[in-house]
Amino acid sequence: MSIIVTGLPRSGTSMMMRMLKEGGIPILTDNKRQPDEHNPYGYFELEKVKYDLSWVSEAEGKAVKLVTMLLKKLPSDNEFYVIFMERNISEIVKSQKEMLEKNGKKMKYPEEELEKIYLSHLKEIKQWISEKDNFKVLYVSYNEAIENPKKIALKIKEFLRKDMNIERMIKAVDKKLYRKKAKEKDIEEQQVKREDEEKIKEQLEALGYL
Question: Three-class SS of residue 131?
Fold first, then answer.
């Protein structure tokens, strides 16, 4: 079994890798990408995940960071526990824009267009994951991890069924790094949407469709 930490860039994947490391999970990284102002604690990346699957045999019992676009390349005969980081989509895009601009680059698409593209991609990849028998997945809200790291740490421990250092995991969450916050209205709308989805789920369960 390997642990995959995934999500869009700037969705909290580096933070989750740090939580796992502090919790006692071995991580697979080459440390080629050094810490910077965007991720002062490090990126915890492995360069060769972009090119081939030679790393898979090394990842047994360890955590590896992959962007969502690479998930479909994973072999079907291996078991993967996937921690899928989610974050308010406008926060993700704004954070990506800031990172690009500080590196002297520009966004290729308007923010609103990129948000729609990402949302469509996330919907598609989640559907794909749901159809894979060798994937077990835990969706983790970055925003919730910032607000209640203990709750998320306990969820991860239960999901992975491992003895983990909860206190160190909690301390791995640095709230000062939550710099690109969505407008209060956007967060409220997102919360309302989640609540509506839960109500729909409850209704369909009662009717016997779920």
Answer: coil
Q: For the domain that residue 58 is a member of, what is the CATH number? A: 3.40.50.300
Query: At 45, is the pLDDT very low, low, confident or very high (cuts 50, 70, 90)?
Result: very high
Do 107 and 163 meet the contact criterion of CB atoms below 8 Å apart? no
**Single pTM value for the model:** 0.83
Strands 80-86 and 135-141, by their bridges, are: parallel
Domain limits at 36?
2-178
Overall number of domains in the chain: 2
Residues 205, 114 within the same domain = no
What amino acid is encoded at 59 in this protein?
Answer: A
Return the closest-CA partner of residue 85 out of 23, 34, 158, 155.
155
On whether both 127 and 58 belong to a single domain, the answer is yes
Whole-angstrom distance, CA of residue 66 vs CA of residue 153:
20
Sheet strand arrangement including 2-7 = 63-67, 2-7, 80-86, 135-141
- Tell me the residue type at 160: L
The structure tokens listed for 188 are 């409220």
The SS3 assignment for 3 reads strand
102 and 203, same structural domain? no
pLDDT at residue number 192: 53
Instruction: State whether 172 and 82 are in the same domain.
Output: yes
Which ranges of 103-138 does DSSP label H, i.e. alpha helix?
111-130
